[in-house]
Each structure stands twice: as C-alpha cells, then as structure tokens.
Amino acid sequence: MRQAGTALVAALCALALPACATRADDPPRHAAASSAAPQAEQRRPNIVFIMSDDHAYQAVSAYGGEIGRLAPTPNIDRIAREGAIFVNSYVTNSLCGPSRATMLTGQFSHLHGFTRNGERFDNAAWNWVREIGAAGYQTALFGKWHLNYSPEGAGIQTWKVLDDQGKYYNPDIITPEGRSVVEGYATDLVTDFSLDWLEEERDPDRPFAILIHHKAPHRNFMPAIRHLQKYLGTEFPVPTNYFDHYDGRPAAAAQEMTIYEDMYEGHDLHMTEAEGSNELRFDRWPDDFARMTPEQRAAWDARMQASNDAMNEAGLAGRELALWKYQRYMKQYLATVAAVDDSVGRVLDWLEANGLDDNTIVVYTSDQGFYLGEHGWFDKRFMYEESLRTPLVMRFPGRIAPGTRVEAPVQNVDYAPTFLDFAGLPVRDAIQGRSLREVVDGDAPADWREDIYYHYYEYPGFHSVRAHYGVRTDRYKLIRFYGDINQWEFYDLATDPGEMHNRIDDPAAQPIVARLKTRLEALRAQYRDSDGPAVRDPLTAVAKGRRDAQAAAGIGHHAH
Ligand code: SGN
Ligand code: CA
C-alpha cells in the first residue's frame, strides 16, 4: 500500500495538481521518504488531531455542497486536497460526550459507558492518548474536553481545557493549576495555546500528539468580532424540507429543535428587543454576553445593530420570520466556522514553517454532524443523515496520496486504532473500530464493513429526541425508536435522500426491511449491544454499559 501510495503521489504530481505544484521546489521529499525507507519508517509520525464541535459536513466546502461554495473553508479543504477526504464518515451516537469517549477508547457508547451528556467519563479508563504517551510520545490537549471537569488522570501530559461546553468570549480555562478567566475569543485562544506549546514547550526530539479541540461552531454561535459581518449580506439556500410535515415519523414530530420555535431569539440568534436597542431578546443563559468586556460588546453592537434594527423594523411574523431566522442562524454559525478554518490554517502554516508537515498526520473532524435547517432543525442526535455524518479529512504526505477520496464507511470508533496503528502500536482487542490506514489508499480491503451501527440514548433530555438505534447500508437505513415511542422507520436514500418518506409499511419494501432487521440484530450482537430489554430503561442501559466498559477495558489490569 505504501509503495502504491507513493507511486500515486508521483503520478498525480506529474499531472501538476495544485497541491504538488506548490511543492515543486522541493521535489525529493516524498520520494526520499520511500527510498530512505528504513530510517524514515523508524521516525514515528506526529499526530495533530483537530476537532470542532457540531461542525456539519454541509459547511465544509471540500464536500462540495452549495453552502460551502458561499462560505468556503479553504484551510480544511487544504487537508483534503493534500490528503484524503472521507465521504462516508459517520458517528456512533450523535452527541458530544459519547462521541468524544468513543474517539478516545475506540468503543461504542454502551461499552465505554458514556451514553449521554452529563455522564462522567472515567479518566482512569484506557484511552489511546495515554497509550501512545507511555510509548514515548509527548501528548497535549487544548480546548474542549466535556467528559467531566478536566482531563486530570486521563494520562494526557499537558492540557488546558475549556470549562464544560466552553464560552466563546473570555472563557473559563481549567489547567492543572486551577481555573481562571482568559480574555479573548475561544477559537483563537485554543489555537494560541496549541501553537505556544508546539513552539515553546515541546521536546523537538520526540514525536508528539496534540489534540486541538474547539468549542465552535457549537451553540450559541457567537462569531469573532472580525467575522461578525462576514455573511450578513449573503443569502443561503433554504433546504427544501425546511418546513417539514413529519408525517409518518412520530419521533421527528415530537422533537424540540426547530429553528423557528426552539432557538432562543437572544441567546442563539442574537436578536434585539427593539429598533435602536441593543438589549437581547430571550436569553436563556445571559452569561455568554455578560462576560464580554465593554469593548468587545461595543464592537459587537457596532457590527450587529444595523441588521438587528432592520429586522425589528420589518416586523416579520410566521413563515417570513422563520425564514429570517434560518438566514440569521446560517450567518452566525458559518461565521464561527470561519475562525475554526483560520485556526486550521495557522496550524498547517506552523507545521510547514517548521519542516514538520511531512512527518505529521493531520486530522480534521467534528464530534458529530449538525442540521443546518434540514427538517427545520438545528442540533443533531437523530440518525438522519446530517447529524449521523461528520466531516473527516486526513493528511499524511507520502502515505496518503493527495486528492484521495475514501468511499468506505468509517466511524469515530476507528480513530483510536488509526492513531495507534500509525504510531506503530498494536491495536487492542477491546477496540471495536478498525485502523483507517487500511482504507486511506482509497481501496478498502475485502472484509471492510459494509454497513454501520448507530445508537442514541439521551431521552428525556435537551431537544426531546427519542432513543433509537439502527443500521445504515450504502443505500438503505432502518431505525427503531424506543421508549415512550415504539416506531420503526425505513428509508431508501437513493430515492429519498431527505428522509421524508418512512416506507416501513410499504409492501414493496418488506423483503429489504426483513433483511435489514436481521442485519441490525447481527450488528447488535457483533458490537455486544444486544441487551434488548435495556432499551426500555436507558438508565439501566447506562449501568450495564459501565459494567461492560470496565470488563472490556480490563480495568484492574491497568495501573493508573
Ligand atoms: C447544550 C445546548 C444544546 C445541545 C447540548 C449538547 N444548549 O446543552 O442545544 O444539544 O449542549 O451539545 S445550550 O444553549 O446550552 O448551548 S453537545 O455538543 O455537547 O452534545
Ligand atoms: Ca457536539
């Protein structure tokens, strides 16, 4: 695979791809990596694992959608152009804490035990960062942790984290020394912490793994001052199912996550009370704005006032107001993404300027996907496409050919084994995912998975999304919602990509539905999530998950 990859790089460079052209002055680098194989192979790669929070793949221009065209992410795209883009990248449970715990452990929620936000991750449990640290890597984490108060005891050597969800302006920062408010914009601060560590604290003679985990573009969508007006004049395309009827989908009908009704007008949409006033409308958590300095707030108001005044003057209602809210949401959300993309650019530039880009794996992903108005929603949780998918791009010069498109279905359960594998460490049995090294040449091995398993638990909870689990193949999706709703759903994504028609009762679909039900049971058994009755009582499932996680992680064998 290695040789094939190198040959492909050479072939692509011969075609003068832009990514290669910028390196024309330094042609032997990739070639040298293979001819000097014995030495190069011993040089363990650095790992830069960048993750944002709630970044929809629809808002990453490398994925080619219309939003990306209007609000491009050139630096994230650079990773894809110089490496691989995973076009079928999914999560196992579309929620922050469970996803992060999955990325750390390589296990589904029911095994690591963190099934819903508000759980507490056991920092003593096995995770890949501690493992590669023990094998000689320097490890550091900056930004969002959100698994419990801090990473204390998780075996990450250096860390500086946001408190809980993190605040956009002047966030509380927790370090081993304590907690303090640091003035600045969260995305920029997390980048500064990361670059400072790389520049000043890192031992240049040892490989490193740095986790740069942003708060943005998570709710309440507050952009940096420099980006506040970036999209104010841009009209974004309204999803065709923005005004969804939810017919045949009782769980979708019962959620509380519509842009038109469930977003807080002040807190999330930054709308003001009246023309000429800067007082925010309903603001569920006033601290996000109250903690701005007077200068920051004045700069904010100066840039937002005209738009807010125009809105108040227009006196919109009903459908018009719902459409206005969609546009305001997109403007603010995408402006927070702009700072994340700036951050990625700063990190890539730093690697290049320090000659580290060749021997460093750079990964960009999000903890899950997000709705950008599809079905009328923001937030995530559902197994419907936009939140099930998560962006994933990866660069590793000489090992991943520029412009690689990975079609194989991958999941966040695969990240831990990937990092171990690239670091030259064995993958342990308790890990349920597989190393992405097997698919980054664009050619999946014959025994690679063909479908993916998903399980969401957090109900009752924010946004009232019922617990559900399901299977997605390359074409079909079968979901079972359970708890106070017992509902199966079936979609043919080839004919109904927007998942508007639940065909579970369609006679023509029955042979496929039957096949998928069998397949779903097989997956539940394979991943050991086969405790059927637990689905009636999510709390029991959590307790079982904890027990299984401890057994799987072999707790008791590891001294921490
Ligand atoms: C907060 C948000 C919710 C969001 C959860 C989970 N409300 O509670 O809208 O679903 O986080 O997000 S907020 O107004 O406090 O931001 S997650 O990314 O942590 O899973
Ligand atoms: Ca999230």
Descriptive overview:
This protein has 560 residues and is α/β, with parallel strands linked by helices. 35% of the residues lie in helices and 13% in strands. The chain has 19 helices and 16 strands. The strands form 3 sheets. Strands 7-6-5-4-8-1-9-10-2-11 form a 10-stranded mixed sheet, sandwiched between helices. Strands 13-14-15-16 form a 4-stranded antiparallel sheet, covered by helices on one side. A two-stranded parallel sheet has the order 3-12. A hairpin with a 2-residue loop joins strand 6 and strand 7. It is globular, with a radius of gyration of 23 Å. The N terminus and C terminus are likely disordered. The protein binds 2-deoxy-6-O-sulfo-2-(sulfoamino)-alpha-D-glucopyranose and calcium ion (CA). 2-deoxy-6-O-sulfo-2-(sulfoamino)-alpha-D-glucopyranose binds next to loops. 2-deoxy-6-O-sulfo-2-(sulfoamino)-alpha-D-glucopyranose (SGN) binds next to loops. Belongs to the sulfatase family. Pfam families: SGSH_C. It comes from Pelagerythrobacter marensis.
